[in-house]
Structure formats: C-alpha cells, structure tokens
Amino acid sequence: MPAEPPPTADRPVVEMRDINISFPGVKALQDVSFRLYPGEVHALMGENGAGKSTLIKALTGVYQIDSGVISVKGEEVSFSGPAQAQQAGIATVYQEVNLVTNLSVAENIMLGREPRRLGMIDWRRMRKHAASVLAGLNLDIDPGSLLSAHSIAVQQLVAIGRAIDVQADVLVLDEPTSSLDVKEVAELMAVIRQVRDSGVAVLFVSHFLDQTYQISDRITVLRNGGLVGEYLAADLPRLQLVSKMIGKDLAALEALEEGTKREAVERVEGGAYLTAAALGRKGSIEPFDLDIHPGEVVGLAGLLGSGRTELVRLLYGADRSDTGTMTIAGKDIKLRSPRQALDRKIAFASENRKSEGLIGDLSVRANIVLAMQAERGWTRQIPRRQQDEIADRYIKALDIRPTSPDTLVRNLSGGNQQKVLLGRWLLTEPNLLILDEPTRGIDVGAKAQIQKLVAGLSEKGMAVVFISAELEEVLRLSHRICILRDRRKVAEIVNSEQTSVDDIMDIIAAEAQPA
Amino acid sequence: MTTSLAPPTPAAHSRQRLGQRFEQYTQIGVTALLLVIMLIVGSLLYPNFTSGQAIFDLLSKNVFLIPLAIGMTFVILSGGIDLSVGAVMALGSVIAASLLQAGWSAVLVIPIVLLAASALGLLVGIMISRFEIQPFIATLAAMFLARGLCLVITDRSIAINDGFFQTMNLAHINLWEQETVNLRGRVRITDVYTTPSVAIAMALLVVAFVILHYSRFGRTVYAVGGNESSSRLMGLRVDRTKISVYVISGFCAGVSGLLFAFYTASGDPVAGIGYELNAIAAVVIGGTLLSGGSGYVLGSMLGVLVLATIYAYKEFDGDLNTGWTRLMIGVLVLFFIVLQRLVATRRRR
Amino acid sequence: MKKLTSHRLLWPAVVLIALLVANLLWNHSFFDITVRDGNLYGAPVDILRRAAPVVLVALGMTLVIATRGIDLSVGAVAAISGSWASMYIISSGGGSVGVVLTAVGVALVMALIAGAWNGFLVSVLGIQPIVATLVLMVAGRGLAQIITNEKILYPDNSPAYKLIGGGYLLAVPFSILLAGGIFALTAVLTRRTALGTLIESVGVNPEASRLAGVRARPIIFLAYVFSGLCAGIAGLMLTSNSTSADPNSIGLFIELDAILAVVIGGTSLAGGRFSLAGTLIGAFIIETMDAFVVIAISARSTDVFKACVVIIVCLLQSSRVRAWLLNVLRWGRQPRSPRRTEPGSTSVPPAPDGATAPTLTVPDINTGTNADSTGGPGSLPVKAKS
What we know:
Largest sheet of chain A: 6 strands, mixed
Helix content of chain C: 55-70%
Distance between the termini of chain C: 54 Å
Strand content of chain C: under 5%
Helix content of chain A: 25-40%
Largest sheet of chain C: 2 strands, antiparallel
Mean pLDDT of chain A: 84
Strand content of chain A: 15-25%
Oligomer: heterotrimer
Number of strands of chain A: 22
Shape of chain C: globular
Low-confidence stretches of chain C: 332-386
Order of helices and strands of chain C: HHEEHHHHHEEHHHHHHHH
Number of helices of chain A: 18
Radius of gyration of chain C: 26 Å
Structural class of chain A: alpha/beta
Distance between the termini of chain A: 42 Å
Low-confidence stretches of chain A: 249-253, 259-265, 511-515
Radius of gyration of chain A: 24 Å
Strand order of the largest sheet of chain A: 6-9-10-3-11-12
Shape of chain A: globular
Structural class of chain C: mainly alpha
Number of helices of chain C: 15
C-alpha cells in the first residue's frame, strides 16, 4: 500500500504511526499512520468527520494522542502544546486567521521572535524584516499598520507569511485558501512551490480538489477516522480520489447527480414575496435589486468576500441598510432587526453555526423552539408538553441524532447541529427561508438530505435563498442564480439545462483586473 | 498582484501609520487634556493649587497608588483583572511593621515583603491559568485571603520605629528653590522637594514602560490580552505570561505596601480598602481597555494624576464632603468608558 | 435540567452539610432552637437572619450574571436606600407607620432607578457591565455620603421600621420571610415564564439569540432593575436592624459575598445557565462558615476561611481539576485527555450507526452501509478550467 518514496529523500521528516485518538463517545482516529517527506507537498484528504483536523491537531500539539508514535526528524516526540511543536520545527496556518488583530502586521509576523538589540526589541529591524516577508508574498501593505485594518484575506496571507518566515522543517496549511480570491490563490501556490523546493515538507489540506491537484505530490486519504491509503498524486485520478473519500460507487453517484439537476429547472409564476430596490449598506454591499417569488429557489454565487452573506443579512435585518427600500408581501418596510424579519415570516440560517446559530449549552429542544419562544415574548412560555411534541416531531422528521431532545447541542456533530437549526427556522413557518452555506462542513449523507429538503420546501411554495461555495450545489437547486463579485450583484441568470458551472465562473471572472 | 486595500507608496504608508497612531493616542490625549483642565480649575479655585510644591505633592501624597496602577495595567492589558491589590498592599505594610517590631532589620524585611506579595500573585496566577478559574473570583478570594491574613496578624495598626523606614518617611529630595509668598505677604525661599518614594515609583514606571514596549514579554502581554487563543496557537507561552502578570501585580502591590509604610510609618490592616477600585479607575481613565490588549502604562500614570487632583480638591477645601470626590471619580470613569465605547463603535463602522 | 442540578449542586451541598456538621461538633447545642415571647431564637435562626440580605442581593446578582453581566453597585445601592430611609424617618421626627411606608417606598424607587441606570448603560449604550456598574459603585457611595451629609445616622428604631430587618412575623424573623418570599417569586418568574430560558439563551450566545429574534435589551434591562430592587430591600434590612446607619459601611463588600454565593452555587461568571437554588446554598455556605469560624477560631479569621472555601469550591468546579483528580485516582494510567484549545471547528461526529432515515417530505435515498456516506452528491470536482 505505501507508495515508493521520491528520490529526493529517503527518510520522512515526520512520521506518525498507529495513531489513536478518542473523544467522549467517539473514536476520531483509529490506527492511522502518516508520513511527510521533505521537499514534497503532501495533501491530506477526506470528508468532514474523516479525522483530518484531528490528525493535524495531534501533529501540531493541540491534541494529545491516546496511543501511537509521532517522530520528527527521526526522534520520538510528545508535544504538550503548540509552542513545543513550533520549536520542533512545525509551523501551522489554520483555517481561521489566528493572529492578534490589535497588534501591527510586523508584530504579528515576528511575535515571539522579535529581533533584539542589547536585550530590547529593535523595532526598526523588525519592521524591515517584516517588509521583506510581505514583499515575498507580493503584499503591499505597511508593516507598521494595525492588522485589524486589513481584510481577512490579507490577514490570512500575513499568517502564511509568519509561518514561512519561521523557516520550519514542516509547514502545515489547513484550508489556507478559504478566504482568498483567484489571484491570491495563484500567488499562494507559487509561494508553496518555492517553499517546497527549498526542502520543506508541506502538509496541505483543502476541499478544493483542483487546488489539491495543482500543488500536491502525494495524497493521503482518510475516511471515518481510518486510513484509506497513501498515493502519489500522479497515480490517482480525481474520480477515484472522490470515491475513496466517500466510499461510494461512482456510477451510483453520477446517476444521482443527474436526477436532481433535472428537477430544478421549472419556472415559477406569481407575484414577488420580497422585493429589494437599491438596497445597500456602505462598506458591506453595493445597492442591489432583487425579487423573490414564492416557491422559487434563488441561488447566490460568488467567491468568498463577494458579498453574498452581506446581502442576505440585509434581507433579514441582521444588518441595517443605508439605502434603498424593501417591500415584503406588498408592504414597504425598513428592517431594523431580525425580530422584525421573523415577524414577516423571513428566516435566516447563518453560515456560522456555532457563533450565530446554536445556543450550545441548551438542549436540542430548547434550541428548536427558541425562535418561536422569542416571538411570544418572555411572558408567554410555550407549554412544556407542546415543546416536547415539537422537539419529537422535528427530531424524527429531520433525522437528528442522537434522538434525545435533552441532548446539549454542543455535543452533536456538525450535520445534526445544522438540522437542529433548520428545525428552529422551519418551526417559524417562514415564507422565505434564507440558507447561508447550509451544507458546509457536513458529511455527505447529511448534505444530501439537506439538499433534498430544500428542493422539497420550494415545491411546497416556500421561497428559498440559497448560498453555497459549491457551484454545483447552487446549480443543482436553484431556479435563478444571482452572481456577486466584489460586494456587488453583477448578474442574474435563469437556471436551465444548458447552464453550467463554467457560465457562472465566466461571469465572476469577467472584467476582473489583470494580474 | 496587489490586494485591493493597500495604498501603493511608502509615503502613504507613513501617513497612514501616523493616522492610526493618532487614533491610538487620542485616548491619552483626552486624559492629558482633562488633567490640564482640572489643574487650571483648581488653580482658579484655590490659591497655590498649581505651585511647584503642590504639583509634586500630588505625586507624593498618592505615591502608593502609582505602583498599584502600574501592576493593574499589566493585568488588565493581558485581559484579566486583580481585585486583591489593596489588600496585598495592606498585607505588605503589616508584614513589614510586625517584622520590624520583632526586631528584624530593614535589609531583610524589604525583600521578604516583596517576596511574600509576589508569592501571593504567583498563587493567584496559577489558579487562573492552570486551573482556569475566572480572574474576578480568583483575585476576589486572594483579596479576602490577604485581608484576612492582615487581621490575623494584627487588628490595629503597628507603628514602625526602624531607622531606615523613619528616614524614608521624613526624607526630602530637594529639587530647586522657589520663592513663596504666604498670606501675610512675607517672602520666603523654600525648596521644592519630593520624596524618595516618588523616585522609587517613577523608576518602577520607567521599568514598566520598557518592559511593555521593548521586551518580548511585554508584547506577549498585549497579544494575550488581544486574543488568547490565537496567541496560544502562535506558539506564545500564554500560561507563563498570565502567571507572570499576576506576579508583577503582586510585586507592585508589595512595593505599594512598603511605600505606604514609609509614608505613614506604620502598618495598617485596614489600609487600602477600595484602592483596587482606584487603581482600576486610574487605568480606565488612562485609556486602557478593560477587555485587554490596548492601553499604555503612561496613560495609567496620567489617570493617577487625575485622581490625585480630585483628592487635592478635597485637601484644599476642608468643607468639601468626601462624597463629592467619590462622585467625581465615578463621573470621570463614566465619561471615559462612554468615550471608549463611542470610539469603538465608530471604528467598527 | 435535572442532570444539571444533580451535578452542579452536589459539591456545594456537600460543603454546606460539612460546615453544619462542623458547627454541631463544636457546639453541641448548635441546632437548638428556643421559643421566647412567641418568637424563634437560636443559632440556625441567626444564620438565616444574617443571610437574608446576602440572599436577596445574590438573587438579583444571579440573573445579572446569567446575562453575562455583573453588578458591582449593589452595596452602594443598599447604602443609598438605607441612608435615605433612615434620613427620612429621622427628619420626619417619628416612626409612624405612614412615615415608614413612605420612607420605604421612596427608597425602593431610588433603588429601581439605580437599577434602571445600570440597565441603560449596559443594554442600551452597550458598556461593559464591570465598568458600568463600577461607576455607580464608586459614585453611589458618594451619593449616600452626600445624602446623609457624611454623618452617621441613628434612626429612631420605630417598630414599624425595625420589622424589616429585626422584627418577627408569625414567630419567624421577618427578614427571613421576606427573603424567602422573594426567592419564591424569582423562581416562579424565571421558570414559569420564558424569562429563565431567554436569559440563559442571551447569556450563552447573545448574537445567536439576536438572530433568533430574541429581544435581549428588555431582558438585560430587567435583570439590572431587579438587581437594584433586591439591593434596595437589602439596604433597608441592614439599616433597620442596626442602631446606626453609616453610609460608608452599609452593605460594604456585600457585592463580593453575593458574587461568591452565585459562583459557589454553580452559576458561571461567563453567563448562561444559572441556578437559584445553588445561589441559596452558596449564601448559606458563606454565613454558616462565618458563624463557625467566629466560634471556633476567632472573629478575625473569617476572611481567610472565606477565601479558602471559595478557592476549594472553585477548584472543585473547574473541569481541569476534576479531570486531574480522575486521572490521579485511576491506577497507573497517565494519558492526558485531549485538550481542545482552538477556534470554532465543528465538533467530532458521534459514532456512526447503521440506519439511515428519510428526510422531511423528501423521497428516500437508498443507501448502502456506511452511515456517514448515505450516498448523494458530494462536492464533485469542477470540470475543466482555470
């Protein structure tokens, strides 16, 4: 099973053997082995819940392993924290930007390693060094500026700069491109190639398959906490990779895809439920027009940072608009709070489940009835019996596991958490349901269930606004697709059998500045 | 490739940097302005309010607040809070007084007091960092502990007769000569002076400034206060830093205790009740955010001067109800936190 | 909910029982209650009576803390209300019931205003609770001093006024009845209405609550008003029961005792789930321990012991310490449990189980074996393109 080592080195710089990690109730990693060679980009692939994140955290010292051996440069190690892993020569860039935004760019790059003169920090030398790091990434920003003054994309690049500057033996990149646009991704790929060629071992995790194939030399696939295999990228065709990741027969998969796509193409009649006219918010989204009809699924497509979430937050009153008007069910209204939107039968499932959706310490039952209770106010409590009945109904209908309504939602998996939130919104019986990345970070099974749910809801007359980074998903489900670029709605197309992902990509890429 | 935000020229960079620096300094600027206004008002209301000596008196009469504010700045910058500083100050003075009374020499007593105070800080730091107890509760418990230990040692103040302490009590550092005209029109030449305690407090201030702005530890304090989990992932020694700031706070409180003992020539178990609030008020007025990660220790010094000026009002006007000083301090704290809030919301827009 | 109470209240209850036993061992007549002039007397009665103001303040504090806030001003508010009432009774020259009622009424209104002020600063202006209530904590005592002109008052202990803090009703000290009544009222208010759940929701995740349509502002405002009211009543209790009312010392440190009671009782300072019963136990622990230390050791040692109890209870509540204890008790096994120290990733999925289920109104997807991959389109690669 293990592939031949490349000719550049014959010893791995990192070797993890028979790693086991368990959390209460779950075996996250079972007898997983993994190795990293210097001068190589090694991709770690797997669906969510496969254990990629856990394996990385074991390597970088965030988690302790229950059994197994980790060796770095031939020596066995046991990290008690990220600081030790860094000292052992492992630098990590995480998916969320993990920098300190109240300090300057230069400080963030050099924090912990600031150059000193006579025992005191030499600020000038620090700024100069930081400037050179930024130049290496083609980032033209002032190293003395506060990190918080820059966009997430820039902050992520600074994080990458920091990791590279540390000159580690191992560079771990966990979904480094999730906040970057096309040009920035290309820039990053070039930098990764440079780093690899200088002899560093790069561990690369991304759910973007094409990026993975662009850059990786070797691929390891995990599934459900176990190791499926290690392959050279050149020897593993895409479809085989996907099938190994989800463990499913390929033909069945493709047939399924065909089926659902065909369903999504009907036209919808009737007056608009919601009309937005020149609705906008400074610094957030340029004024846009949008009509949403009952029974229609409107998909929003665009790159990260294009403004999709910002747009729907205006529709929900989560943010207040500066300009424009909104008409809901014939009445003009300026939404000032989610409360008002809910009163008008609009519901919104945020993409940040944890920070904006779940009340983690409360039960499944309490989370599901929350919006309904909020509507009734604190004086009129929903009778306990009714709460139980509602909870049972939705647990069954949405296949939420585990099935006890008293389970605290923070103990559920991502997919089940998402279903609890969907239950909360569906309970309010909305006429317009806005879903922001409802299938992100969810295992394939739950993903399919949710997609089917959305299709079913629209058939019953509910209007749905659907945001997803996966364009195939948007294509599969939407009647109409709005395309956003750089905080502006640039196009609206009707989805038909001929529409393809390429069409959408063309519109997104059109008129973009040359690199 | 250029990212969409950045201005392209280095000149624009430094202009932008200046603009950001200005915003960071506005808070301190407001404090400084307030101080100047209060001094002017005082000099209009009371004679000799801003005479050279009176200004230095502001420092020497409130000298034990300075180390408390310095230590509190470290703790608050790191995102924590320390409610025990008043009690530890009292404990420091009581330990000093009782040991001196028992015949120990000042050379031994002073390090012991500092060690004891730092040890208490270490205990608190371990509770907070290793055992993950909330700083509010942990330092509250420490306050009870320190206050309780004071009462166990003695229930009334102990006089200090030690030579060194007496010297520190009476000593003057003469700075320059000044002509004063007293109420009867007689002109005298006196020395404007300050006390060695003030010199010690100022030295502590300088050391604190250097640590916070020129040492890796100091920058780590800012980082931990800004975002603790990120700091951990960046490989910074967060636990060690958190423990250290509480040790520093304890040490500073110990210094305060010694300064108190110098000033009053006694150790008093009920001293410093409410001083932690004054320290927090000084830090807030000085522009440090209670959420951590932002603020300057020089600002806290200005905050101490503001409080000192308010107390000076009370001194110069015997009839003034003490209640007014408290009310004024409360109003000032309110003013500054509302200001901080406005700046924060404006920045978010 | 049951799990929460049985778990979190266990340690505080154990500590309370231990303290009661210690008291009993030291003083065999500890639990003796005598009846004199038709009223109950005895050590337990004294403890309950001393605990009454702390319980009141702690009740209000519990709700405030649950909303992720804190109220440092309760001592000052107690001082204001107590001072004002005493002033009024003295300056009206008498202790008639009418005068007392007016005094009480106005004092409580002042307390409500103080609470509303705090509520305004926190819920409308969005100021951090520690700082917002710090303002009133400092300024409020100043106000109390100004009200009384910095004098210590000697209220004419009219029976009507004395009733609140020192008097008896139906053989039981009135203050105990009053505190108990307000406890019951609070319990009903929070559990029989949705107020409790909404407070917890706001405390656990304010942003998610906002997006779910919860109006946090009135809830947070109400919590601070309630806290102010409780503090006002406590202030009346405290001044009515003593022969002097010193604006500097009324309710001094009561906010600390209240916060300790809340924390010992299991409510986290970080907000969210709260327990009124826990707070009650916490307040009793503090008073019982004080009583014990005074008899057994010395009146001067109460603070040290209070500190130790707090530290012990907090350590026991800390999950780190519990995990460490469990490890130590387990023979020989050294592995440490994996720490999660990082930013929001999704939690680990539960063990896969074999069945799949249909979704709401949607045709079944027929599946094979693996639960987590019930088939269905995953993220298929983008064909072509640059």
